[in-house]
Amino acid sequence: MTPEQARLGALTRFAVAITVLNALGHAYLGFEISVLQTLVCAATGYLTEIILETTGAWSEARKPAFLGGGLKRLVIFLLPAHITSLATSMLIYPGDRLLPLVFAVVVAMTSKAIFTVTSGGKRRHFLNPSNTGIAAALFLFPTVGALPYHFTAELYGYWDWALPALIVCTGSFLNARFTKRMPLIFAWLGAFALQAVVRHFIYPTWLLASLAPLTSVPFLLFTFYMITDPQTTPSSVRGQVVFGASVGAVYGVLMGFHVVYMIFPALLLVCVGRGIILYVCEFAPVRKLQGTVERLWLAAFGRPSLNLQTSAPDMGKRVTTP
Fold it and tell me: Distance (Å, rounded) from C-alpha 208 to C-alpha 196?
């Protein structure tokens, strides 16, 4: 499977999964948000993505990416916008208002065009779009919140366990087969549990209460469908472990300062930090220093010196050649 095939396979399956969940949410699960609000989010995401791509293509004197392949190419082009828009509509609750949702989706989509870094000769965005839009809406609209209960409000008995189990199974399959982000998930979950234990001994908090978010549907969606975004996370195992553990550590710190909805600002801060690292590492003196440090490290363990090149998407990943 080529990287492009894996990317398209992941996008398609993520889009189908989030669409089915939204449909079930409105029909059976008891979503508080209206169907109109969900449709407005989707339309806003599509329109914003097309406008941004058209503007970018015009400024770079190229053909827009959604042209030249008929309806199929347009649908594939809009898959990321579809996923971002529906994720945003699921995870925040603005009452009966539309403006906060439109704002969150526009921020999410435009963050991909504004917050970019040139790494390894390629321009890439470093902020998780859905998370950025959600965090911005929660911060700038004090009356906007999240409703964890509305995913299971109409479920009873074994179904209370069946839905989370289904999310874990499908999310594990997608991330193991397509995104290859299982090390990141394990690191994030391990760090989350560790910060709960640490806070239990530092503050008078009940350990089970600190671990309880692990069982919530929004937490599982965040873990398997948001934090694992391949475009804004490292691809190396080492980079994934550092990234996931960092999100957990920042979450624990924010909890200590009583910041609400901690998982979203925690991921945002770590993405910002990674973007800064990628930017700094592109400076020639820094790249030279990295190579020197790695050669010294390898030599200390009895390994021969290697010709090292920096791999842009990864936080600290190296590609070695004899």
Answer: 9
